[in-house]
Every structure is written in structure tokens, then in C-alpha cells.
Design a protein that fits this description.
This protein is 29% helix and 33% strand. It is α+β, with helices and mostly antiparallel strands and 158 residues long. A hairpin with a 2-residue loop joins β2 and β3.
Length: 158
């Protein structure tokens, strides 16, 4: 059976349980404040979650230091993509790209933005049509802000 991209409709704990412990600390205690303004999308194989991420329409807890700037992104109809995780034993199989493309297929006109501390992910995000917007220094930690905006369709320019 193949990999499936789907919305996690209930029991977010089954997604949170695959996240690293430090990520769980950043989202689980705050989830009740965000569950109505976000959605979890997961990748499954044989009904088992092997990856996923969260799409937020409000500033998530791990980005609170950037809240003022985040509001500008949200006001311009961008959604925040965070907590993207692929199980370690399933990496290097293009599953991260499969997840991002799942969002694009589900919402072809939607714009997204994200922050990452992982410098080695630059090529991954660029390969997935995200553009580096700026570098941010947060408490001595460098983060990179990326944004995705769907290309104008032929119909929209004719």
C-alpha cells in the first residue's frame, strides 16, 4: 500500500507522539489554544502515521517572538506551516516533498510561510518552490523565513 496524505480529523496525540520530545514541549501544552485555528495533515502508510505537519492561521507558540511580523503574513492570506516531521526511518524518500505537495493539491491557491533553524533544509524548501525571504536572529539562533506563493495560472493572466 502507498503513502497517503490526509487531514488528521481527531486525536492529535497520535501525530504529537511521533514528534521529537523538544517539539512536543513546544506544541502539546498549548494545543487547546490552537486546535480551532490550525489543522494537522499527516502521511500514513498501512494506517500508521509516518509524518506530518501543522498549518496555522494564527501565530503558533514556537514563533511568538515573531508575532507582530507574523500578523502581516496572515493579513496577506498566508498560512504558517510548522512542525513538519518525517519519521527518521522513512527519510530520504521524498516524503517531505510529498507532504508539501499534498497541501498544494488540496489548496492550490493557498500561500504559505515558515521559519526553520535547520540550515541543511535550504535546498529542500527551494526544491519545493519556497523562496528565502529573510534571515532572522532570535536569541542567538539563526532562523530562515521561507514563503510559498502559487504561480499565476494562465487563466488568471489572460
Amino acid at each position: 500500500m502507498g503513502t497517503t496524505f490526509k487531514t488528521l480529523e481527531s486525536n492529535p496525540k497520535i501525530f504529537f507522539d511521533i514528534l521529537p520530545q523538544d517539539w512536543q514541549i513546544e506544541i502539546v501544552p498549548f494545543w487547546n489554544q490552537y486546535e480551532d485555528s490550525s489543522r494537522i495533515y499527516v502521511l500514513t502508510e498501512d494506517e500508521q502515521i509516518i509524518g506530518g505537519g501543522i498549518v496555522f492561521s494564527t501565530c503558533p507558540p514556537d514563533v511568538s517572538y515573531y508575532e507582530k511580523e507574523a500578523q502581516i503574513w496572515f493579513q496577506n492570506d498566508f498560512l504558517y506551516v510548522g512542525f513538519i516531521w518525517i519519521a527518521e526511518d522513512r527519510r530520504n524518500k521524498n516524503l517531505g516533498s510529498f507532504w508539501l505537495n499534498g497541501l498544494k493539491k488540496l489548496y492550490p491557491e493557498q500561500k504559505y510561510w515558515l521559519l526553520t533553524e535547520e540550515e541543511h533544509l535550504h535546498r529542500f524548501y527551494q526544491k519545493n518552490e519556497y523562496v528565502l525571504i529573510e534571515t532572522i536572529l532570535n536569541n542567538g539562533i539563526t532562523e530562515w523565513l521561507y514563503a510559498f506563493q502559487p504561480a499565476l495560472s494562465y487563466k488568471s493572466i489572460v
